[in-house]
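Known limitations

Files may contain more than one protein. Parsers should not assume a single record per file. Below, a two-record file is shown to illustrate correct handling: read the sequence, read the token line, then continue until end of file.
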Amino acid sequence: MSESIVAKVLSGTELSKEIKIGLKKQTDALVENFNGFKAHLVIIQVGGRDDSNVYIRQKIKSAAEVGVEASHIQYPNTITQNELLSEINKYNSDSSVHGIIVQMPLDCTENIDSHLITNAVSPEKDVDGLNIINEGRVAIGDLTGLIPCTPNGVIQLIKRSGIEISGTRAVVLGRSKIVGAPVASLLLWHNATVTICHSKTKDIEKEVSKADILVVAIGKPEFVHGSWIKSGAVVIDCGINSLPDSTKKSGYRLVGDVHYASASQVASAITPVPGGVGPMTVAMLLSNTVQAATKVANMIYKSQWNLDILPLKLQRPVPSDIEIARSQEPKNIMVLAKEIGLKESEVILYGNKKAKICISVLDRLKNIKNGKYIVVTGITPTSLGEGKSTTTVGLVQALAAHSKKNTIACLRQPSQGPTFGIKGGAAGGGYSQVIPMEDFNLHLTGDIHAVTAANNLMAAQIDTRMFHEATQKDQALYDRLVPTVNGVRTFSSIQLNRLRKLGINNTDPSKLTAEEIVSFSRLNIDPNTITWNRVMDTNDRFLRKITIGQSPTEKNQTRQTCFDISVASEIMAILALAKDVKDLKERLSNIVVAQDTNGKDVTADDLGVTGAMAVLLKDAINPTLMQTLEGTPVLVHAGPFANIAHGASSIVADLLASKLVGSDGYVVTEAGFGSDIGMEKFFNIKTRYSGLLPNTVVLVCTIRALRMHGGGAISPNISVTQEEKEETLRKGVENLQKHISNSVKYGIPVVVAINAMNADTENEWKIVRDASLQAGAMDAVVSTHWENGGSGAIKLAEAVILASQQPQEFKFLYDLNMPLQLKIETIAKEMYGAKSVEFNENILNKLKTYESKGYGKLPVCVAKTALSLSGNPNLKGVPTNFTLPIVDVYVSAGAGFVVTIAGEISKMPSLSTRPSIYDIDLNTETGEIIGLS
């Protein structure tokens, strides 16, 4: 043996402290740089072994020291393998969890394969590094992933010794998959020459004596003696064993696999036991957790998407919309989903061209700062529409495909009513469309059908409940409402809600008094007060008034009612305004369908239908992902009409888009019809509930429509001189200026988008631009997106970007504390230009009743014609000195607004003499849809 030397003690305790300090700085940076983002470790334990509990407490304490949130999840020792796998998968899917470890050994009475369990942990969250994928990466030299903790700790201790690993001869005693084998691989990829020794190795002492670096993990106490060790070698002892020792209070002492006393006289550096490798294992576990969390944070907060842009093949003359749509092959929707930062588990595929996006994404991205928020509105339109949807699509194509800004369009799902009526679909037009156009306009992912089903379930329950109350005695009715099942009689959870509403504290069905039974069982709906109608998504004028209950089985329980179109259902408005599933369910429960004979509100909860409706809508709450012709993302969700509801796509879609685009991105959403209707409701209703404050208003106009407002004809068949056209245009721009004025009142910059058409002239565009700037618009830009796609809207995109950078001074039109009547008058005078508002005595009494019931602080949703600023569709331009008649008022308590009807408004449109039905057909040979526009 060579002359003895005093080995440097490689303290894992000291090194782990230094590592923890560095980790704490990293977690602090995550919190600061990523808006409160926190690394989260889940420790899964089966059973309750005392030694495991000690290790778990150490890990939780260390996690707290470095700023990692640690959750200890303990399962009984009776858990089965499948149950444990299911639980692990739950945390694999939980976006708030960044690291998962399963504490070994499993203390379980069941037969569980521990290797199967460790491999069940997602490789991206496997901070123990025991998943076969992570082990495989180490074996092939890929050290960018999560490295097994103890082997990584060993390498850090070797580096601590000061030895240069590259070029050394290393010997590893032990070949276990947890320590020996991965340590050997790590040393190999640090350019050492590695020998692995094990129980079958011959002349093991001779092999050890060659080692410049010796790692011992053989599981035998004090197996290696100093006489075996090469002078000056670095010795890492991974073993921990207990030997009897009567001098110790515990009766035993802990030793390693190396005889420390003799080895420390030969080695240049050596790890103690305890206090060597053990503390480093925990430090590396936390290091892996922070590494995994940092990777997630960087993915979430990455600033720029890498979209695969689909090139347009522009043709002249511009083909039909459906020809253009079919000429472009959409990219696989999962590819697009991944491009914008979504995980596979967050995407529910409907084929390969559309998909539902789980709203759970909002939880994962909750720390992301919102992007810029752009709302597209318009002037008072012609019956042909002025291209708001087309402009929205063209603008987002310009922003995302040409300006390279993270941008998502949020659009409403079109109703079948307009699609098969006159207006046609709503996928945009020309080279600014959502594709596949047929899917967009027909059925999509079934949300409107879900709304229809939920609405009609409520309607059926209303009439059925009235029937049963009219035909049954008190006790029989009660016994059927609260039946005995398998000898047990209990109230359902929704029935408990009714008991609480009635102030009945007894929850035992057998102990209610006779009076309480009557109060609970009988809703006593006054049929004259029912406001809930059945719906269908088809224009059908003959359903505007019907009689139901005419079958002999209904025992003369007849009444007059009607059908509305599905998108006019309050449930559609609720779907658009709900922020999450909990909010959706609460809003559904608050729906008022009628009053009882005492004038008290009857709600969906009273009818027991809230949960059932929520079940029907559980998938509809998730927005649908589609794409534009240029392959940029679109979220399609909800479809409330703007003349009879608030007319905007969903809050969920806007919130989700705002997080996905990030702080430097853009969300472009649309408000139905003009600024007087859609935009006013967008600001005063939707914005109040979403909390998202818009940065810019894009106001769409066409020369055609402005000329009409000046008294000119919009028909291309009527021949007039250019001077006559410009004269009517100069008069008609007053309508545009009024809409600009409406927008400016909210303190938001306005950019006018002149949706160019072939018949327009440069001078007409100048007339509109000059009038726009004079009225307070920040800019007015001619956009040729219909003809050229995103490239035709680049100047519009530039103007929007500039406007969105201006200071935000948003303000609501009215205070919610104002009386309902004053709110209505404020909207009518400020937005429409009315001189006065006409209320009859019945309307005024209704408003007072609503205020007495607590609805007075709700926003107001005015239903009126979209074809005029006034309530008369025949008054064009900017009507003045008119009176707005309010002919009805009702409360949409679930949606959260009071509806007032101004003039003649039908919630069930009709088919014209020649609707689009005549042009729509199915090619039975190719399966293609013909005539859809």
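...continuing to the second record:
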Amino acid sequence: MVKLSLDIPTQPLLRINATTHDAWESEDFDVAEDAVIKAHVNDHNAFANRALVRARKLQWDAAIEDAQMSINILPSPIGYIALSVALSGQRNCEDATRVLDLGVIDCNGDVDAIRWLLLVKAIIVFNNGQCEEGIARTTDLIKTRPGNDAPLCRSVQAYMYVHLGMVAMNDREDAKVVQLLACVLGLGSFSTKIPELSTISTIDCLCKIFGWNFDTLWYIVLKWKCEALYAAGQTNEAVESLHAMMDQLDEDIKAMKRTKDWLVDFKLRCAWTLGDLGDEARLLNNYSEAVNQYSAALALDPSHAIFAKRSETRAAMGLWEDALEDAEHAIMLNDPSPWGYGRKHAALHGARDYGNAIEAFNTMLSKLEHDPNPRIRHFRRQYASPSDIERVIQRAIDESLQNSPLRLIETTTGRLCDRTEQKKAFEATSYFKELISSMTTNVEFDHNRIIEVVKRYFLYTMLSHRWEGEEPLLRDVRNKSVYDLELMYTVSKLQSFCQLARNLGYNWAWSDTCCIDKTNSVELQKSLNSMFNWYWHSSLTVVYLSDVPPSSKPGALAKSAWNTRCWTLQELLAPNVILFFAQDWTPYLNDSLNHKESTVIMEELEDATGVSVQGLIGFRPGTTEVRQKLHWASARITTEPEDVAYSLIGIFDVTLIVNYGEKKQKALGRLLEAIVSRSGDVTALDWIGQPSEYNSCLPADISVYSAPACVPSFVSRAEMETLVSRLQSSITAEMALALYDKLDRQPPPRFANHRLTLPCIVFPLTALTKWIDDQFGSKVYYAAADGLEDVEITTADTFSPFSPSRPARPGWGMLLVRPWNRALLGVADVESDIRNAEDSPSPSNAIPLRRSESLQPTPTFDALQKAALMLVVRLQQRFAALLLVRERGGEYKRVASDRDIIAQVREVNKLTDIRTIEIL
């Protein structure tokens, strides 16, 4: 902003002493009035000057009297001017201008005096409401002598424009204000220096006559420009103009109350507008512009609200330190307000100072809760409490740890931690505090993200290996770091495993050597029953093969002793992700990806373990395919005999009480008992070998399952159709359906008190003849059974022969029984037959055909009959049976194995002898 530079001739018009000048300047008109007369008695100037002073005092009659006295003494321009001003004050514009015209006549051609009188006349005309005419007169004066007193005329014209502009501003005529401002600023040359107006007598004269103040004039012009720019929507330019104005204004003007009041009001208005502009820019993600607008607003008014907004914007730009500084300013300016603390929380959270961020957030919540304004308190509802978030996190931690080992090694510190210590470790991390700090509002309360972060932190890796010598136990690592243990081979293995897990990004690692308290029977029980589940839920299982040299070729893994151990079977089947490492801890075959996705490695393991590739990749625990799973474990070995059973707990998804010292037969018997009772699968009874002391139907050793299971002879579809056709001529539909229904109603096999309750198809022996003693010390008997073809029985037991003519001794008996297998109800071809009969979709599982059950749609009677006859065909096929012996009216015991007795049904009607037998 610039100011008018006045280059005005200094012809004296008022002749007054210093006392009069000072009194007049300070508007102490009583003193000025006395001083004028005392200095110049009977002088026309004195009377003219006193007339002007009295005019300033609005004493118009007295002023007219003095002005006339001055003219009477000596006509002069100042006398005529004084009289004209006094008449103008009485709103007598016509006489006032006439007086000035007379003054022009009396000037006798004095050009300067005439122009003075004409300039005053223009002012009088303007002051009496003829504004355009007054401005036109000053314009004419400027044109007639552009080089002499034109600056003075321009100054007068500037006053006129300013006056009109003030009126327009009061009337809110913004366009007119802008137009008048342009007129003021276009009146002459400008500079940044304010002239010393008191040294210019011509200007000084006008100031005293009309009460003008050129300092105030420029203040008004500059103020006017600021307002005009603001009204035109150019707020930033208005602020620049304001700063320039403050640099140029006289300190006395700045100290004036009206100046101060306007400055306060204008700054506030500009600050509000700049704040709104910042808001608009922020909504458009133009953060730099928003910060500029907020900064400009704060330079005018350091508002806590604007500081808070700028803090939020800087946070969006990632300027965390600047955002925090703004938030602190907002708090300092208005501590009771919650919003400054909200912005402080955001800045600290962005700077990852989560502890202090949570503290700031809690302070904000407290401010919201206790704010006297109910509308502010209402905002509290949208925020989540850190304590509530923490409870959700704790639940997520509990759920995450539910399927993880009871103890884990923290890979960073090498320290062994129980679940309580694992929770504390997480609570000490930035993950925990970041979650609490980030879930500030109910909208941001993301349960899934909490679960994801918690789950990611508690991911763990499991070690699978062979024990070799003295492995470090729990007592060796308790309250120590595994990295600080005395170095020996087995310790080095544990350290290398933990370092590998850490390098792979896992916080936790587990090794069976030191992570289980084997002296605590309760913990040992829980661990062994849960171990499969731990491997199942592990993110990675690391298999260390100490007997596989580095850079081995394919085939080395298959030769590893790791494949011979019982415990390693579940450690192979359970994990979804597994990596094999050679003795130098390099990945097997240099493959660092999931080895369950490696065709080469899986096929190698298939050959080594007998488990199909699909079984290795997609294994599911449970009591399905029992015989196959027992076969997988049949050749594996353990150090502790009971581990033969305990190592299979997870594979079959059963629970056993762990009791080392109970002996292998009992442990295996309890395992098989749980499997048969839970699944109803009788294929576990299919074995050759020594019976268990636990129950005669169970083997003494798992190795008996190395032999393949008995597979009934295959009947093709064409053969099945032929056999069913034959049966239809000899077996009534009612008989076939009755058999089907009776078998369907049989209870599942179950164990109680070491006794097996087994539903069977029973064939009593009618004759037993000893045949030979074989080379292995067993005896071969030739037996006849009611309803069966004659069979051969090989057994180590000795029996007394009997026949119809020579009955067995009383209380003694032998039965050939076929354990009832409910799987036979799901005859393979039934499903397609019923679909063809009804032309409708069928269930995916085996179809139950009990007539009491409702099928949708219900099969026709022909379809039911056919299904029942197909079952009869299956029952007539060659099958494996058990030889049961009862002595002296006691309970039945098994004395011969399935594969030694392959029988063929001879009489169909004998199939209806179905009983449930208790076997000891």
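Parsers that stop after the first record will miss the second one. For reference, the second record is described as follows. Residues 1-12, 189-200, 828-858 have pLDDT under 50 and may be disordered.
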